[in-house]
Amino acid sequence: MKFLQLTIWLLLIGYNLSAAPEQTLVILQTTDIHCHLTGEEDNWLKLATIIRHERLSAGRDNVLLIDCGDTVAGTFTATRTRGGIAVKILNALQYDVWIPGNHDYDFGIAALLKYHRDFSGRMLAANLQITGHDRKPLAGWKIFNRNGIKIAVIGLSLPDSEKNYWRDDTFTVISGLNVMPQVMDKINRHQPDVIILAAHCGLYSANKMMLKLARRYPEIKLFLGGHTHRNVPGEKIGSNGWYVQAGKHAGGVAKISIKFSAQSRRVKKIESYIIPVTKTTPVDQQCLAVVRDELNEIRQLGQQELGSTKTLISALAKFGTLSTAATLNGQAIAVATKTQIAFISAKYDVSIPAGKITRKQAFALYPYQDTVSTLMLTANETKAVIEEQAKRGTRYHWLTPVGLHFAINRQGKVVGKLRFTDGTSWEADAPRIKITFSSYDLAGIYGRKFPLLHKLSLTPECRGVNTKIKIYQAVADYIQQHSPLKARDKN
Asked: Cα(282)–Cα(259) distance, rounded to whole angstroms?
């Protein structure tokens, strides 16, 4: 009888253990919002409604809200507020963590440090080094506690972000592979229940850093990514990791549910999906109230007529030829520097119909913080730059010169002489000529996309100069001064 009672007791204990309740931690992730606040579907104010609902449903003490960067720059609204309006939304929604992306440095390191001071959560970047700071102004990781669950969150910015900015020595972002051993050593001393790595980095960007870290550190259960603008609802990486990425432009929020055994606090399961913003998603009125006055002021400014065009201005063009949008941008930066020749691109999806041009439409022609810069080049160096474009350019980023005629063969080589718009040739032994570029292109896009152009930009003989004039401002000035425009398809 005693043996039977003992058996039943043991069976009941086993049943209770197997049926032990789970605890669920919810992670909400956004990334690459680029300050999109007012679109029909790409709309942070609408996304805020979803975020509030999900946090309320799960319970505030069960949720961490994380943004993986490229948050403050990319729209007319962002530029008019130098990113400040984005920080207001981050605070209104009580984000817990913000990882700086490569475009979060667009307004400069002083601006980034101001965001850091103003942000009510924690900005994390273990691999960011700022010149002149003995101490790291940004922490690399933080321990959070949600209903007794100890969560370590590590932040990594995109490696080599400083290489987007020509001759910028104010900061450096090193590879996460170099800093993670020290970070993990410190975190493991805290014995967290779960470790999350949040980075402004895609699965295959930055030399596959995320994949390598997943293999090297199987104790990291969740990887949150960004930068590549991909929707990744969830997939396994490494032997033990789960990767999620919430797309771009506030089009959706990733919801990750991490289920723990209530007794052992061990991770049992991770589930994730992306909740999209739709045309019918309502705007969050609390967030709108925080930024309504600024938005109204910026909307009125954006609708102001800047000039006009007699023809369609479009970025659409055959690969290797100038679009009307790129032609306009090139003319604008050439006038700003009083040069004959300018190499430039345009945003790939811009289109302005014949008629008036507003300030917001003009900004869309080149919606970045890059500056007008110049080099002194020979004819042969210029040919080499053109040939590099033929080899390494893409339909989304092709630099072809305004103010110069040339011919290229099927092998991407310049055939014959370069000629100016008046028909005269540029002889190989002629003096160097000042040519205009964007600072971003001289940086070579991390120094990898256009290595020859980047190398020339650092050569003393080429006498590189950064005018500090914003390209979007040069374009706006040109439209004001030369309207009505009659765009040309060819240089």
From this structure: 30
Q: Residue 23: beta bridge partners?
A: 260
Contact 82/366 with Cβ under 8 angstroms? no
pLDDT of residue 18: 46
Q: Would you identify the CATH topology of the domain 304-482?
A: 5'-nucleotidase;  domain 2 (3.90.780)
Check whether 437 has a pLDDT greater than 60: yes
Measured distance CA(206)–CA(214) in Å, rounded: 14
Q: Largest alpha-carbon pair distance within the chain?
A: 111
Domain ranges of the chain: 20-297, 304-482
> Which residue is it, tokens 């400069």?
108
CA-CA distance, 297 to 336, in Å (whole number)? 28
Q: Is 304-482 the same fold as 20-297?
A: no
> What are 150-162's pLDDT values in tens digits?
999 999 999 999 9
pLDDT in tens, 199-227: 999 999 999 999 999 999 999 999 999 99
Instruction: State the CATH class of domain 20-297.
Output: alpha beta
C-alpha distances out from residue 393 to 125, 184, 324, 381, 403, Å: 32, 40, 18, 17, 19
Contact 425, 417 (CB under 8 A): yes
Record the tokens describing residue 293, joined without a space: 């006055």
